[in-house]
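dude i think i finally got it to work??
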Amino acid sequence: MPEGDTVHQAARRLHSALAGHSVTRSDLRVPKLATVDLTGRTVLEVTPRGKHLLTRFEGGLTLHSHLRMDGSWKVYAPGERWSGGPGHQIRAILGTAERTAVGYRLPVLELLRTADEHKAVGHLGPDLLGPDWDPEQALGNLLATPDRPLGEALLDQRNLAGIGNVYKSELCFLLGTTPWLPVGELPAETASRLPALAKKLLEANRDRPARTTTGRDRPGQRLYVYGRAPRPCLRCGTPIRTAEQGDGSRNRPTYWCPSCQQGPTP
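look at this
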C-alpha cells in the first residue's frame, strides 16, 4: 500500500530514470490529457510531497500524480517486458532514449504549471520525509480538533503528510492507544512523542524494499498489528482485532491489540 515511504522510493526511481533526459515518448491516457504531448521536453526532477508525486519539465510544467490505494509507477529498460498490469490499466507513459516510466492505475493524473503546484499540494501539512517537516506544527494541527479520533486525524494529510492506513495502525500500537481515542485525550507525554515516532517509522523504511515496524524481517512479523488479525500480538499474545474506521467512503481496515492499546473501540 503506497504511503510516504513508498512514494519517496517511487520518486527516487523515477528521478534516477528520467531527470536530465529529453522525453522521446509521451502518452497520457486520461481524457483531459489525451492531446497533451510532452515529447522534446527535458525532465528536470521528480519530487515527492507527502503521498503525491511531482514530475517537473522544462518550460514550467508539472505532471502531478497520486497513487492512492493501488497505483504504481514502473521503470523499464529498452526491450524489457512491461509487467505492472494489463494494458488497459496504463494511465501514463513517459519514455526517454534509455528508460520508460509507466504509470499503472493512477487515480489522479493532471498537468499544471509548476508555479501552480500549490493548487495540488498546498493543502498538505508538514511532510514527514520532506524538507518542510515541522513536528510542532504537525502536533498543533492534530490537537486543533481534540474530539477527532486519533486514527482519522493521522490519515488527514492536512495535519501531517505521509501517513496511510498501515502507519496509522502501527503508530497507534506503539503509542499504546487505540485509533478511536479522541486526540484531545492523549496523555501529554504520549502526544509529545507522536511526531518524532511517526518520522522515525517512515525514515526507517524509506530505503527498505519490505516495510517493517518491528525490526524483524520474517514474513508475518514485520508489522505489529496491521494485517495480522486474528493472529496473536507479537508483544502479549492476545489476538489482534480489526474493524473499519472512518465515514465509510473508503475501505479503511484498522488493526489493534485489545490488551496493549488503551481507549475506546468499536
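The first strand starts at residue 25 and ends at 28.
im so relieved honestly
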